[in-house]
Design a protein that fits this description.
Glycerol uptake facilitator protein, 73% helix, mainly alpha, 138 residues
């Protein structure tokens, strides 16, 4: 696996795959987490449906778009699973996880930048306004 890892670093195709994971993860965080924003939504069922569809369709679309380039992991846990089962090299594992993490940070930053200021107060937080107990939101 060592020579394969070193060969990966010299390959343009490898770096395109790493970039695809970065972009894919950024898009996932931007679109799917953006679907969770709602100033007021009296119907909890429509909120759950909206969020579920946004996450499911985002993951499906992004994985479909980049799977031929990088494998479409878009999640460090998925990449870890591929590493444990020896489907990816240590170098690919490490760089995918680093770039997925950076992509998630960039996606969250873009989401915060485009979110109106009156929504930002609850962005990326759990709250009890939906009737959930403090134990359920933590």
């Amino acid at each position: 696996m060592g020579s394969t890892s070193l060969q990966d670093l010299k390959s343009k195709k490898f770096w395109v795959a790493v970039l695809a994971e970065f972009v894919g993860t950024a898009l996932l965080v931007l679109v799917a987490c953006g679907s969770c924003l709602s100033k007021t939504d009296p119907d909890l069922n429509s909120k759950v449906t909206r969020i579920s569809l946004a996450f499911g369709l985002s993951v499906g679309s992004i994985v479909w778009a980049i799977c031929n380039v990088s494998g479409g992991h878009i999640n460090p846990a998925v990449t870890f699973g591929f590493f444990v089962t020896r489907k990816v090299s240590i170098v690919r594992f490490l760089l995918y996880v680093v770039f997925q993490t950076l992509g998630a940070i960039v996606g969250a930053g873009i989401l915060k930048a485009v979110t109106p200021s009156d929504y930002v107060g609850t962005l990326a937080t759990s709250d009890t306004t939906t009737g959930a107990s403090i134990g359920q939101v933590n």
